[in-house]
Target: N-acetylglucosamine kinase of eukaryotic type
Amino acid sequence: MSASTTSTEAHPAELLAIDAGQTGIKTRLRLADGTTHDDLFAGVLTDRPLLPQLAEVAESIVRTAGTAPATLTLGVSGLTDAQAEAEALLQRPDLAGILRVVATHDSVTSFLGVLGDRFGSVVAAGTGVVTLGVGPQHSVRVDGWGHIMGDAGSGYWIGRAALDAVMRAYDGRGPATALTDIVRERWPDLDLAYPQLQASHDRVRTVASFAAATAVLAADGDDVAGGICRDAARELALAATTSLRMAEAPGDAAVGAVGGVFGSELIRSEFTAAVNAERPDARFVPPMGSGLDGAVALAGLGAQHPLRERFADVRRA
Amino acid sequence: MSASTTSTEAHPAELLAIDAGQTGIKTRLRLADGTTHDDLFAGVLTDRPLLPQLAEVAESIVRTAGTAPATLTLGVSGLTDAQAEAEALLQRPDLAGILRVVATHDSVTSFLGVLGDRFGSVVAAGTGVVTLGVGPQHSVRVDGWGHIMGDAGSGYWIGRAALDAVMRAYDGRGPATALTDIVRERWPDLDLAYPQLQASHDRVRTVASFAAATAVLAADGDDVAGGICRDAARELALAATTSLRMAEAPGDAAVGAVGGVFGSELIRSEFTAAVNAERPDARFVPPMGSGLDGAVALAGLGAQHPLRERFADVRRA
Model:
């Protein structure tokens, strides 16, 4: 008798939830007896086809557990066609036991993890940033348009502004800043910083890596770094208030702010002040749970929930 | 008797000048009798090694002409180590007849083409932008730090700002703008614009391609497009005035503005006004010649010229 047969007979799997971000893919398998098994895989590569990456993770878990879950839920970074991905996952031979797939963008699972089924806005600001607003009737997405044309206030945005400020100080267009020492640690000859960065295969992450030091220098009183962090906070607040307005959320709606950028106390407090200037009654709430909790919640959300318009929910015929 | 022997005996080549830009590589071969032969090759790829690309062009011309020029001069986009490139070119077996190589960044040949040996500032603004200032004692470079951390006011900078403004109008953060129709011609579904742009192998050129339409809409009175163009003009003016100040150029120094961005009358006039606000006596001058003329001029520049510090000038031992 194989281990997998034992496992299936003992505890059939109810749900496999996947939170697929660029930094890591987190998974949770829930069995019929209520026990859960969490796992972590390497992050999703958003410039390659998503399906093989998601399928490989799901198949690996099903293989190990020896049981296919009735429901598979996914929140995926970079997902642009949830319907197509959900249907394609149901077609994978190794996932034949799955009866239902619910797929959505990771901004939705992030929202559900932070606010659950409450109305409000969640700003998730890491290397990129995406904001989701949910009101009684509908939900809206604000920004999350990537490092070239969007992601205002994100880690990339802050790092890019820091590099720009360093080069302005270097050629005489801008004031001196302690950011220069930070950037020189990476590129001692500033003349060569830009060709080396442009030739790098990891440009986005490299640029965003300067955000943390920028926040530290801002807290230490560097004017240039402080200006960048305050501008970032205002961009994040604009996204939050815009999402509340566009989603027609109630005046006392909840606001959640998650992600590495909010690790800066300066950015967090400027963000709160800027949101309150526009929305005095907004309630800032700590996250109820993680994006993985949000992926679990996907399975149980009512058919009338305003976020349902952002899901693909596919059942086997 | 071969054609090349005939050619060499009749008219030995004095000079081969190369202006190697990203759009095209322009060459001029000057023979002892004063006649010149111009040619055009595909543009230099700045994310690949430069030497093979430059050597191939020079070798092809030497082969066709049947005579190696005494002097080879080059202005090269993306050049970061002129000394190494110049020495390596002298080592190529097929360029054995060349006695001297002068190599520099294309911002230097652009300056020489526009202002010749006068003091002043040249702003060259196309997809990217680089500004050079020359005073009696020394020369300075301002910006030209590439599309990620620099190139303020360039075609890329304008196009990126236009895309950002379109997405802000789309998600409710910003005012409506006619730029939206332009961007929708390329990406009818704006939700998909950013993943498609990020996956493109021609991102920089694609972004910069929106600059021309932005200038047209600005001239037509679109407020958002107008704001972007005025901001760009101020960035370009800041680079010009900074370069004059850092190079300690005289008050009545010449200012040259070249490149596609200055094809916008709005940008050109805002640029002039902003430079004059800081430098009332600056003289705006039309270009004396092209970047290729500047590459030719490289060969004859005196040893005391302030731009000499930006050259590699290598002679065969």
About this structure: Residues 117-284 of chain B form a domain with the Nucleotidyltransferase; domain 5 fold (CATH 3.30.420.40). Confidence is low (pLDDT under 50) at residues 1-8 of chain B. The longest strand of chain B covers residues 13-20.
